Structures are given as C-alpha cells and as structure tokens.
Backbone:
C-alpha cells in the first residue's frame, strides 16, 4: 500500500525541434540519427545513473528519467552537456507525484507549457511541476521473460523473437499503467517498471493477463529503496532469486542502505 | 514486383553470453547497462552507416544490420572494435535472401548454428549463410505518424504517447512481416522497414489495418536504390513529399546514383 | 597572495595494469587503444565537469582531475562507470594541498601506496591523502598562443606547428611548476594551469622565459573562484579581454558566483 | 633504403572555425571542450582504424591520420559523420609523398589552400595533393620508455613523470623529423612514428641523442607492411621482443600479410 507521503520525481527530456532538424537542409542519413540518439541517451544514462536515478529511452527524442536525487536546477547541467557536444539542444520538464504516472504526467505538462516540441523558438527550457519534494522510498519491478534464450533467442527467427518480446512488453506496459506504473523495455528480454507499492497479487494478475494475451511467460522481481538505484538493485536480486526458485513474483526485503 | 535475382544481406550481431554477464558477479546497475548497450549500438551504426548500410537496435543484445556492401570478412572488424573497447564480445551471423525476412532468417540460423547465445564457451563467432552474393537494388519504407507532434507529443501524457506509438509500430511490424519485410521503430514517431519491392496497394492495406487496429494514422515514403543508404534517402524524400501533399503512400522514382 | 587556508583537491585516475592489458594476449591495434583512451577521458571530463571540476588527459593511463567539489567516496561512482563499460578498471588517488603541485603529489603518493600501476592484483583501489578538506577559492590560468592561426596553423607544416606549440607548453609547464602549478596542453593553441594565487609579475616572467626559450608568444587570462569551473570561466573571459586589448596578462576580478 | 616508388598518404583533419566556436556566444566550459575533442578523435580513430590506417591526435582541432587505404572521396564519409553528430564541422586535406613529412606537408598545403582555419565562410572543404597514388609498404616505429613504471609511474610525482615523458617525446619528434618521420605521443610511455625505411643505426643515433638531452632511455620496435595497421602490429611485436631481450632497437621481419 502506497504511503501517500511518498513522492517520486520524473523528468522528461525532449530534444528541441528535433523532427525538423532531422530533415534540414536535407534528410540526414538514418544511421547518423541512430548513433546520435543512442549517444545522447547513453550520456543521460551516465548523468542520471551516477546520481542514483534510472533512465528509459522513451522515443529517444523524448527520454524518461527517474530523478528523485536530482534537483531541477541540476538538470541544467545535462542541458549544458548536450548544448556543447551535440548539434541539438534539450528542454526538460520535471514533475513529482505520488505515483510514477502522476509524476511523469506532471513533468509532461510542465514541459508542454513551455511550447511545442517543434516550436523553433523554444529551446533549452526547464520547467517544473513539483507539489512536493521527492520523498520516501521508490519501488522498481524488473521483468524477465522465462527461458527467453531457450525458447526464442536460440530457436526462432531473430525478428520473430523481437516482435514477440516487444508485443509482450507493450501489453505489460498497458496493464502496469492501470496501476500507476511507468514501464519500459530495457533490452534483451527485460523490462523495468517504476511502480507504486503494489502487492504480489497485483503482479500475479498482470503477468497472467500478459500470458493470456500474447502467450509469453514473464517473471518479476520487486525491490524497494530510497533511490531508483537501490530499489532497482533489490529488484534485480529478487529476480535472480526467482530464476533459481521458479517463483514468478519475488519481492525483496526492503533495502536498508543503498547498494 | 521483386526481381528474383535481387539478393539482400542481413547481419545479426549478438553479444556473447550477455545475460549472465549483466549479473556476474553481482547484478550491474541498470543505467550502466543502458549506456553500454546504447553505445555499442551507436558504434554499429557508425560502422555500418559509413559502409552504406542500415541498422536497427533489435533487442540491443541482438542487433540487426542491412549489410549488402559489407563482406562477411569485414564484419570481423566490428567484432575487433567491440573486443578492444567493451567488456563484452559479439558473434555475428550473416545471411542473404531474396526478401529481408529470408535474409535475416538465414543470418539467424547461421548464428544459432555456432551455439547458444548464453554458451559461455561461444564467443566471437562469425557464420555465414549466403546462397548468393548480395545483388540488385533494395527497397526501404519510412513510416511516420501523421501529426504526431500535434496529436500526441504536445497533447498527451508522454508515457501514453509512447505506448500508443510503440503499439502502432508493433502492429505495423506484424503486417509488414507478412510481406517479407523487417521493420523497426527508429525513434520519435518513425519506423523503417526494409522490404521486397511492394506495390502501393500493399502499403495502403497495411496502413489501413494499423489504423483500424490502433487508431493511429501513418504515412509512408518508399525508396529504392543500390544501397540501404540510397534507398533510405529516397524513402525520406518521398516521405517529405507526402508531408507536403497529404498523400499517405509516396514511392520515390528509383535512385540513379547513391545519395 | 595565497591564503594558507586555501586547500585544493586533485585526483589521479590510473588505469589498472593497462600496459600489460594492451599487449595481452597479443598487441592490440593502436587505433583501438587511441579510441578507448580518448573515450575514457571524455567520460571523466563529463563526470568531473558536471561536478564543477576540471580535467587534464595526463598520459591517458594516468589522468588528472581537479576535484574540490567531489568527495573521495563519490569517486567510486566513476570507477563503477569504467568497470561496467570498459574492458579495464581504474584506481584513484585523491589528495589535498595548499598548492596544486602539493595536492597532486599527495594524490600520487596515496595511489602509489596501493601498489604498482602494473600489479595485476591491484585493481579499483581508492586511496586518499587529505590533511584538510578542500576549501577556499581556486586559481586557473588559461594560456593562448598569440596569433597561432595566422603564424602557425595557416602558414606552417601541420607537424611543425604542433611541435612548436607542444614544445612551448612543455617549457611553460616546467616554469609554472616552479610556482606550484599543474599545467596541461588542452588542444589547439591553449594550455590551462591550476595555480596558487600568483601576481601578474610572475606570469610576465614565465611568459618571457618561454618566449626566450622557444620563440613563441603566449598570453594568459587568470581567474579565481570557488570552483575550477568558475575560476576557469573567469580565466577564459580574462583571456578574451587580453585578445581585444593586446595585454599579455589579464587577471579577472574575482568571481562572485559560479558561472 | 626507401624505394622511391613508395608513396604514403596522410590526411589532416581540421575542425572548421573551432577557436571562435569555443567562445561563442560565451566561452564554453573546458571539460565540455575536452570531452568533445576527445570523442571526435575517438570517432576518427574508429573510422581510420577500421580501414587499416593510423591516427594521431595532433592538436585535436588538427588531427593527423595515415590513410593509404582510404580514397579522398571516402574522407567525405567522416566529414558527414561529424556534421550529423557534433556542433562543429571538419575540413580535410589529403596528401601523398615519398616520406611521411612530405605527405603531411602536401596535406597541409592542400588544406591551407581552401582558406584559413578561422575563416567562418570555410567549412567542410576537402582538398587533395596527390602526385601519386599511395603505394608500397609503410614503416612504423613504436617507441617505449624503458621501465617507465618502475622509474617514473610508481616512483615520481605524476606531473613530473608526465613532464619528463612528454619532453622526451618532444625531443624524439624533433630528431625523427630530420629523417622525414611524423611522430606522436600515444599515451602511457609510448610514442609512434610513421617513418621512411631507416636503418637501425639511425634509430641508435636518435635514441642516444634523446638520452643525452633529457636523460630518458627509450627502446623502439620497427615494423614494415602494406598498411599502417600491419606495419604497426609488426612494430608492436618487435617492441615486445626488445622488452624480452633488452635490445633497444628491434626491426621486425617484413610482414607477409596483414595482421
């Protein structure tokens, strides 16, 4: 049960006027865009990760970060990093809420209030919507497809394995959203969600719904901690336990100190 | 109509024993994994892009490249690049076929024949399944959600916009697969497919099916050329035409020379 | 005049067992080593720069950072970044002193106390030698060759321009060391020193000695601030003033707030 | 003895209008510039290295590459890579000659003919000065300070070790230039030169002169091959032999095939 005092902070990092930039003066080669997008995301991962947060790629021109330990002002440092290294700039919305969905929603609205993503006159804006300071523990759920290597990676056409896993995580994202969680595929056969404090039965229901919808078996490890980092490490350890015991839902004991 | 002599080459780049590496000796912090995966993918994009190919991230531990202009032996150079810069190594399968699905399927089987993705004794394998040398033009289709900025990015919760667009492209990937195409979300509101030479009516059917399934309107630009690069640039220009004219399917005149 | 309470902190980041790694099992290709070294240095620059410090490449397997705002414990985050992204690891010595030379000397001794740079059993050590906490303002001097573009870059053989400028900065480094400063070439025709609080006459003498020794005219801008970042920005602005006025030594007014 | 038919190709990669860019609209933070410079250099190392060439950082806004296997037209791909990923662009001069110094001199003049490094109107120029196609083997000499770890890295103040080694390689560069070679410090205690085909006695003289001038003992391994890569690998192996035998000059047998 979520303590209503617990407040999580999400940041939405949006590249300014990116769509138009990709075709001006002429369409830019796709591998160049792929490399650019991936490296900006990697830099965000380093910036946020070294401050105990978590990152998801989003749509690459819109990236998502869990930023409880990062003040809005400090986000300017990431904007500065982008400005001096890349041919694009970034605007950021920072929002808090009692659930991840509420926090990311606040961040989204804050960012949208600064202007359109494709407004050429809008650049490097930083907007916040924080009703409260980030406070209290976070919960991270780490999902893993059961025996993906044996069933899919080593056995199927690579594209079919990818479609299957991505569809499973699209279903998963929709179910978890109903519970206030923000979920992302993170590569391989894994997805990670930042969630409210949900009970195991909720995860059972979600996993069963995904299994019924797409025929993919998923297990989950859940961790809770003061930072996304510690909660996430707890989730990873719980997942390892589940891999060994065969349990599909394993919730770690609360982390006493950061990993 | 596809000239049955046309042969496309796909490469499947798989990180060796990656799942186990991410949790040995202890689970590694997720932002570190995100950064690592993104940077290896960016390096692949540079390697392949500078040789006129195209790349898709796949599942990051399994990346996809269109490699008509890159000999199997030259793929070793990318394996070498990974070996000396990263804490992981990569095995690669290279395959050809008359359709992208067939080519990627051949690449998958070639790679699978070298051993499991999680076989600790299998590393840096390079396997090929080439019935014929790559030959003849490629077709690239570049898909774009109609007015994504106005309808979704500037208007919706960022996570809902992402879920909507990703679900649309999962549907698109399934439909296009039926026609022998390999499709990938490439960021923003865009997806790219490498396809056989399909007629406009096929694209009309696919786009209608996606619209009916998920309520998202997509347009497409199609290009054809001797390399993924030139075909892709043709597709991007065709898409720009479509953005201006309002047409949902625009096929570019064949490229006479590489962009 | 240096306030003897002012304490600066330097960190020496040393790649563990790097020499042997570069030739095991066989010598690794030089461009791979160049890329690896440059990217680790770039990551250090991002890590330290986003925490208001400064970095110098040193010898790449031994990198130098000015780290007043970074606790010894926080340095572990950089070690973790290296561990999960690269095929090498890093040990770090952190030291303080009333002059940059003393601080870097303390950092060196702390690191050396953990074992040899080529001791295969020594990895990821973190050692500190801090007699006092970092405190008080820093001074940064930014050196620039007068009219390098006109005299050298646009006029001479590129290798001769490079030799000339590097020799000038080797001489500069020796002279500035006599005054307790740590100096590094930073690219182009620029060098940066972290120095005690020296008077303008000292800079005049140093520049004259370099001019006499190698025939290269250098100007300098000097800044002072609570962080390497603010001191360095002050130095850059002072240098711009000197470029406009023709003065060879310009000391900025003390920075009141960080840039 | 150099076969006067042997022709080597060098490329000079110069960032356009870089000095002014670093201070416009305001001076950019130094760690940002360090990261940018290092990553562009790393990308050049990957681009050239995967095409069997060698790279040296030069002054970072002027980088040097040995490019026998890379046509002038192909250099445009690197310019394109920079254009789409970075906030700066690059102009390139490509030159050939019978000695490295002549080749780099030709490249320099070709580049200078396109305009000043700080001409805001000059961007992304590509100029060549090729009297002959690159042809015939290259020679690479790999220099290594004897027992640097024991004498300097583990024993001295890090800044003093760095000054000593950099001064030694400044002296080495000057001596080797007299013989037509282009030399660069490459990190650690190593320098690499691309040279004409010199006899062992010449290396003996050069090493003795450096020893007399700066008191640093250096050994060298020399390799010869069809590409900078194979010549360089030969040099590295020769150096390993020298480390084991105690010889200060070891010339490898000619490479029969590329490494």
Residues:
């Amino acid at each position: 049960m979520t303590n209503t005092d617990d407040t999580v902070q999400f940041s939405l990092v949006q590249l300014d006027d990116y769509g138009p930039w990709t075709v001006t003066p002429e369409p830019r080669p796709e591998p160049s865009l792929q490399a650019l997008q991936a490296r900006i995301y990697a830099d965000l991962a380093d910036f946020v990760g070294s401050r105990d947060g978590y990152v998801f790629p989003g749509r690459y021109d819109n990236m998502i970060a869990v930023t409880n330990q990062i003040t809005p002002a400090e986000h300017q440092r990431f904007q500065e990093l982008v400005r001096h290294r890349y041919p694009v700039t970034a605007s950021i919305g920072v929002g808090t809420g009692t659930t991840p969905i509420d926090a990311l929603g606040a961040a989204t609205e804050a960012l949208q209030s600064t202007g359109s993503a494709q407004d050429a006159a809008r650049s490097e804006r930083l907007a916040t919507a924080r009703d409260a300071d980030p406070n209290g523990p976070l919960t991270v759920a780490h999902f893993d497809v059961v025996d993906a290597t044996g069933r899919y990676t080593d056995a199927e056409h690579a594209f079919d394995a990818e479609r299957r896993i991505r569809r499973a995580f699209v279903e998963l994202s929709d179910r978890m959203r109903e519970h206030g969680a923000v979920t992302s595929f993170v590569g391989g056969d894994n997805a990670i969600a930042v969630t409210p404090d949900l009970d195991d039965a909720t995860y059972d229901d979600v996993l069963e719904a995904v299994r019924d919808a797409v025929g993919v078996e998923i297990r989950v490890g859940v961790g809770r901690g003061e930072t996304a980092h510690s909660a996430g490490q707890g989730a990873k350890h719980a997942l390892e336990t589940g891999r060994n015991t065969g349990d599909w839902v394993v919730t770690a004991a609360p982390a006493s100190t950061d990993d």
